[in-house]
DNA sequence: GTTTGTGTACGAATATATTCGTAGATGAGT
DNA sequence: ACTCATCTACGAATATATTCGTACACAAAC
């Protein structure tokens, strides 16, 4: 897994990374089919994007028969963390709390979700 | 304040909106000087961006002498909420909780922050 | 009334991201 | 060995975002 300093995938790239993070690894077709569920997109578009991502080092691939199997080369938590961090800095004045409250306020979180967050906070506070 | 369905400011536009949200309203120069603290950017670049935003309805302006005074036309909470929502959907599989935990885990939240979030959750749960 | 500083308008260059067509490789089925 | 489906490579078109130069307006200072 690579150790890049600033990971800044574009929106399309992020969608692809998400598929890869979920599935562990996948062919272009598998990724494409996942994406196609959500939006209209051509197969070669997905292919091209993944080739670009390979170039940037966001993914790696290995040959399997005539197809390539891709794997994310950037860590899910780290990448998400960086994106959230940028978000917190630019939109919420550096305060994670503000962001959390915004997210929970706007979003209809279920009671179970809220409880889980509370548990998480308790554990975190005890440390 | 406008009632747009999908507010999707670009990154640069968001930076400008942030200044306007903080200051209530501001001239191009005022905005520009704020931005210039953080990054190299030409005055006319900021001007142009704000004109584009005017066109999109993201901001309004009124004449004051020879300058224009700009005001955000999109609501801060609503805009932030929409952006967070998109984020939650694409990166966190629709779960606000996952996002919150990511944010709190990565970010070093202070004890006071955690307590405030807990209070917030308590109030929210009681309803 | 000319100079200077500060403002707006806006076209156009550049940068970045996305889309897709077309060409050619390869393997499976016949 | 031919055909078909499916794959990769990649140039190029398009879309979107950003940057800035240049032109011109205006008012204050001289």
Short summary:
Two copies of one chain form a homodimer. In chain A, helix 1 crosses helix 2 (28-38) and helix 2 (28-38) packs across helix 3 (43-56).
Plain-language structure description:
Two copies of one chain form a homodimer. With 127 residues, chain A is mostly helical. Chain A has two domains: 11-72, Arc Repressor Mutant, subunit A (Orthogonal Bundle); 76-126, no CATH class. Helix content of chain A is 64%, strand content 12%. Chain A contains six helices and three strands; from the N terminus they run αβααββααα. A three-stranded antiparallel beta sheet of chain A has the order 1-3-2. In chain A, α1 (11-23) packs across α2 (28-38) and α2 crosses α3 (43-56). The radius of gyration of chain A is 18 Å and the shape is elongated. At the A-B interface, α1, α4, α5 and α6 of A face α1, α4, α5 and α6 of B. Chain A binds a DNA duplex (30 and 30 nucleotides) through residues 10-13, 27-29, 41-45, 47-49, 51-52, 65-68.
